[in-house]
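Good morning N.,

You mentioned wanting to compare the apo and holo forms, so I went ahead and generated the holo version with tryptophan. This is what I fed in:
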Amino acid sequence: MAKEFSVSPYEVKGVVDYDRLIKQFGVEKITADMTKRIEKHAKSLHPMLRRKIFFAHRDMGWILDEFEKGNKFFLYTGRAPSGPMHIGHALPMLFTKWIQESFDVELWLQIPDEEKFLFKQDLSFEDAQEFLEDNLLDIIALGFDTKKTHILIDTKNSGIMYPEACKVAKKLTYSMVRSSFGFNEQTNVGSLFYTSMQAVPAFLPSVLSGKEIPCLIPHAIDQDPHFRLTRDILPKLGHYKPASIQCSFLPPLTGSDGKMSSSNEGTAIYLTDSPETVKNKINKYAFSGGRDTLEEHRKHGGNPDIDVSFQYLRYIFEPDDKKLAQIEKNYRAGKLLSGELKAIAIDKINSFLKEHKKNREKVKKDISKYIYK
Ligand code: TRP
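and this is what came out, ligand included:
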């Protein structure tokens, strides 16, 4: 029998079978043809596409059709502050940055600073605000183009967002959100309303410019229920349906079950972790695909598919395909030991984070330049 798993914006449980999820959600798999089309315009291919970490989409073909006619799209992505950001959060952001640069397009970035307050029992509004400041630094430090990036903070930019959210909310019924998110009679009304806010950046640039602009949303696949509803509603308001391109989840330290969680220390590597902390976390927690004894490992080899350190290299930290293939080969052959693989991952992650922390300091003075006024 197939194993149980579930994916929603508010919970990811079990080992996700992505092929089954594609069918469940009704998204399309990214084909080799689609990848070629993207490469043709981008002039290169991001490792996350080559490695099928971005693996599904809605209407990506339409985005490229329009692009070929000279009708540029804008990008939209986001992050709800609920804790410090971890390396899993950086994944769709880094990809978004690549699309922004390769296609030379505008990016609208939503920070719904009310979302996690509404959905999480134990998060106060004030605590979410503290994470907001810190998360903004992490996002901006990833290097988005100042001139082409516009950050919308829900509670600060509500003046332009709320009227549009109301238009969405009027078309969105209780039964639609209930079945998408598993809400019940006890769910607070803020949660019922929330998707209306997340829908707004998908068409706000069209409202502001007075002409329809195609929207492409790069996101982790758990956000799809919000955008499925958004796609139902927007044509009723005279707007395009947003397109999306979707990635799988960076595994938590503990293995392939669920996803990395910012509120669970033992599952996540934060973007602000010290080199020592990264080393300890990987050595102590990172699930290993190695064998129980050295002898067995040398004889039968390790399994990189379930090895978290290897997966971190594959997802983000070793962009060079040749180097990654060599590591994989040596690990499978038992030549590379689990501890040695961990050491490679620690080294790569720490050099990424060292650069990131420097950038966080540098961009402190620039935050206000990014926020929409
Ligand atoms: N709901 C997302 C989160 O929990 C935040 C978000 C808002 C988002 N708009 C988005 C994510 C658009 C991806 C794309 O972090």
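The mean pLDDT is 96.

Happy to go through it together on a call whenever suits you.

Best,
F.
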